[in-house]
Structure formats: C-alpha cells, structure tokens
Design goal:
By secondary structure, the protein is an alpha/beta fold. It has eleven helices and ten strands. It has one domain: Aldolase class I (TIM Barrel, Alpha-Beta Barrel). It starts with 14 loop residues before the first helix and ends with a helix.
Length: 333
Amino acid sequence: MAFPQTRMRRLRASAGLRGLVRETDLRAGQLVLPLFVNETAGADASPPSREPIATMPGVERLSLSAAVDEAREAAALGIAAVLLFGLPAEKDAQGSGAYDEDGVVQLATRAIKQAVPELLVITDVCLCEYTDHGHCGLVREDGSVDNDASVELLARTAVSHARAGADIVAPSDMMDGRVRAIREELDGEGFAETPILAYSAKFASAFYGPFREAADSAPAFGDRRAYQMDPANGREAVREALLDVQEGADMVMVKPALAYGDLIRSVKRATRLPVAAYNVSGEYAMVKAAAAAGYLDERATVLEILTSLRRAGADTIITYHAKDAARWLAEQT
C-alpha cells in the first residue's frame, strides 16, 4: 500500500525548518515583571534591601532603591514593563495607604520613571495590601465587602498612581463597576490618555498562596469567593471581560494563567482587545520546586509554559520568570 503523500515530519527535520513554520513567537517585550516594594525597608536603604520570599525562590521584597535596580535590569533585558505591588508600613480598615500621594507604590512609580523612563510602569490598583483585614474593599459591620464605597477609593487610588507617573493602571479588586468609575475619574483629573488594564477574569484560585505571603495580603477572616470568580465558570469570565470593555478597559486580563488557557482564548475572541495572562505565584512556585528537586528542566518548562500562553491568545504575560525567560530567549537568538 502506497504511503500517503502528506508527511508532517518533513517540516520538523531541522531547527531551521521548525523555526520557519513556527506559529507562535515569544519575546521579552511581551513579558511583565511583578515587583514587591516594601515601604518598611526605607526609601534610601543603603545598600538596597532585599528580603527573600521563602515560597517564591528568586523573588524578593524590595526597598525602593532595590526596586529601581530591578527595573533597570528588566529594561536592559528587553522586558516590556514592571507591575508594582506595595507593602505599606502601616495598614488600616480603609486601606488609606493605597491612595496616599506619598504611598509606597506612588514613590516607587516616580523613582522608576525617573531612573528608567523608557520602561512601562503598571500599578496594581487594589486595597487588599493596605487594609488591616486583608480584603480588597471596605468591610461592613456584617463582614461583607461594600462594593460601591470601595469603588470610590479604587478610583481615587488609580488617579494617585497616574499622577505619580504610572503608564497603565490595573484594577485587581473585582468590584462591580470599578472600571467605569476609574475611567471617569482619570478623565476628569486630566489623565484621559492613561490606559486601564482590567483584571477582568480573576478567579478565587488556590494558586495565589505564595503571593499572599509575599504581599502580606491574606484575608484576616473569610475568603474572597464573594467577589473573585468561581473557577468552574467559563461563560461568566467572558461576560465579565465584555462588561469591562463596555466600561472603558483598554486591555483585559485572565488570572491565573496555566489552568485557564481555554478562557484566555475565549476572552480574546470575544473582546478583540489585547489580553494579558498572569502566570501567578503558585504556578511559579510549582516549577521552582520541581526544578529544585530535579524532576524537570526549568528552562525548557518555563519557555514551554509561556509559549503555551501566547498560543492560547495572550498578548502580554505577567510572570515572575520574566528575567530568566528574557535571558534564555536572548541566548536563542
């Protein structure tokens, strides 16, 4: 019996052939590096202060000067942006450090933009790192989160970040209507050109554990399932993203990433906007732990994961692997 004329292996025979027909590209300029900036380390810690995070090997809580150093390194590696998370010296029930004009993220934004003006600075807009109860909004006496009152403070936070020089503001709280409120407040304060990257499909995920240690943001009581999404719901994720588009989002996000490739694809098709995927702390920690134990090749695994997110439809990938990935990608060229 004659062999079929179609032989799929013909175009896999060499690295050159594989590269010629490769469908998905991965570049450092598509990556965003998250940074944890620690106000308690002091603004001018000398030498720069770096506090290792046990559950996230290679990731640190940074003093302001150390964050600037990280930003410089990221820019030199060709990474597109940094995403700033603040660890304030003090917390209160209203999360007032989030919208303090001299808060830790505001100070870090100014310092990084002054030192590395070409690097994009994205700021996380949320209250959870700043509230003493750890929730992403104001809490009523009955323990529930007050959506509308929280939205007012989130909009105020976004404006303070824009005023400090943020290139993009990224609300991560999952309060209803916060994108519209932020857009209106930014426009009213003269920041009509500041884009919004909305955490549109943010799930109540087990993969956030290491982040909550890093940012000291675990809820003091209850959980976030009343405002973050049920991981079982895919159609709802698309609906959330479309609502954010209607309210003025310029980019949308799916978080986590690794187990949500189907939703990255669905959100991309539905919104036709740039989509970011957040390769979160638990996903990072799993790879690091397995690599440390010798169970897998870290470099090959990370690049495969990041490429799969691009293949699913992510235009931008937020990842703690960003620096390593950028170096590995440079070695391939």
